[in-house]
Each structure stands twice: as structure tokens, then as C-alpha cells.
Amino acid sequence: MKVGILAITAGGGKLAGTIAAGLKNSHIVDNEGGIAATLAENWHHYQGFVCIMAAGIVVRAIAPLLGDKRSDPAVVVVDEKGLHAVSLLSGHLGGGNSLADRVCKITGGKAVITTASDILELVPLDLWAKVQQLVPASSSVMTAASSLLVNQGYLRLYSEIEVEELPPGLRRVASVKKSDLTISLSPPAQDQLVLHPRILVVGIGCNRGTPLDEFEEALTDLFNQCGLPVQAIRNLASIDAKNDEQYLLQFARQHDWRIDFFSRQEINAVTGIDVSQAALKAVGAIGVAEPAALLSAQTSHLLIRKHKWQNITMAVARAPSSLSAQVLDPSDT
Description:
33% of the residues lie in helices and 25% in strands. The chain is of the alpha/beta class. The protein folds into three domains: 3-114, Rossmann fold (3-Layer(aba) Sandwich), CATH 3.40.50.11220; 125-197, 3-Layer(aba) Sandwich (Udp-n-acetylmuramoylalanyl-d-glutamate--2,6- Diaminopimelate Ligase, Chain: A, domain 1), CATH 3.40.1390; 200-318, Nucleotidyltransferase, domain 5, CATH 3.30.420. Strands 2-1-3-4-5-6 form a six-stranded mixed β-sheet. Helix 2 (35-42) crosses helix 3.
């Protein structure tokens, strides 16, 4: 985490130097233009801010800058003596709580954490979901589930994927009907809180120069046909002869998906698929979409066999996955 440190008094400046010396990847930010202007100018340049000043000054300065808790930087407010470090903004996903703790280890002060799950010693659901590669089916899911967790004291969890261990506050149940939160590859029913596991690998074969919009249309068509959520895609896969395919690469970048490429030799060693004469002729491989998906997912079973469009073939494999109690360390964000 890259952290900017701001102070407005001589005493605060001295403490800023102490914190900067002990806090990895932190920098003292010159605020001659004023706190509000300095924060606005640097808002997207740092993942966190330590502001050594009154909380009210910081609140007024950051108010026009606030966007979304998934993207806003962490903000920690520290008094001039370093007695308290208040995690003011982005406590979980942004790492504010962790930053406040680290500042207090330097100053000898006490972190002030107000997020309910931490106070109640329950799992920070958003951090747990992130490390488990779980994606909310809609933007309201995480807020609703987190609220229910702290108000009820627990969440009943139904999961379609294997569960090794669950963190404090999550209780596994054997039925969707009895669950508060469901981990599933199926679309949510009305009022159902669903997290989709990112475990799907889409194997792709394509003709040279296939336009970008055809990749989008084929994927939408395939996932609509099969009732699968696009949020569950972990990555794409193809043959290495396509590693310079402009629009395939752009398609992956736009969705923030990596592409695993495999050699003809690796693909031809895959068994249990129908040999494609077209692929043999074009790239010397027994296929592309199906074997690439299997290789990337490290499985021998396809979830969706090859579908064909004019210039594209796609197949889907499901990567093995399980849930643990591990929670993301915010200092790694």
C-alpha cells in the first residue's frame, strides 16, 4: 500500500517524520496548497492517507472526493501526539483498519476501529470474499449480507463448492432454503443473496482477425444459453498461436481476465475430446477451445462442450475450488 502522510502543525510534522520512517512505502505529502486541494490532487495517487490533524478538517476535505468503498483510498486520522489513529474511510477493502493498527505500532497509540464486524469479532465479509475469489451477483449483495451478519451475529451459508473451513460468523447449512447467503453458479432467485465463485475457465478458438464485438456476442450468447454468470469467469485460455491475436487480447483486458496460452504439444496430449479437423488444419492441434479450457482449469471434465459461431469456438471448464477461513490482509492491497 502506498501511503501519503499529511500534517498541518509543527508537532504534526515531527510525528509525520516518525511515521514515515517506520511505515513501509509511505511519503510525506507537501500540503502548501491546503489540505482539501492536496487531497484532491493526490486522491488517486495513493492507496491510503494518514492525516495528522482534527477529524473535522479531514471530513470536510474528503467529502467531495468520495466515490465507492471498493475504490476509495483508506483514510486514517491521527492526533498530534499519536495517541489515537482513527480508521475513517475504507476500513476493510481499502485497508484503513490495518493502516491504523500499523500507525499505532509506530506511535504507541491506540487504533480506533468502528466497523461493526471487527468490534463483534466477526469475519469482515468483503475481505473474506475477496481472498476466496467470490463475486457478488449484484452491487447490493455485500452490503445486505454484511448488515445481516452484524445484526444477527451469524450468517447461514449454503455453498455449491467444497468447504474446508469457515471463518467466525459463518455457519454452513445443507439447503439453499435455509441459507442467508448462497455461493452458487446459478442466477439468484428473488431476494436471494448470492456470491459467484470465480472458477470458470473459457477456452477460445478463433479465426485470425476476428472483431472484438464477436467475442462479446459469443460469450453473452453462450452464458445466457447455459444460465451461467459472467462474474464467475476466472480466466480465458487458448493456443499459443493466438497470443498475438489483437482483439482476443483486448477482450481479455477489458474484462480484467488473464489468458493462459498452451502449446500445440500440450494441447495434443489432452484426451477425451472430439478431434477438430479444422483446428488440425489451421494450427496442427486436435482442438483449441476444449483442450485449452481443460488444461487451464486443471481438470478432465468440461462443464460446457464446444459451441461454434462463424469465427469463434468456446468451451467452459470448472476449476477445482474450496472455501477456507482465510481473510485478505488489507496491507497487501
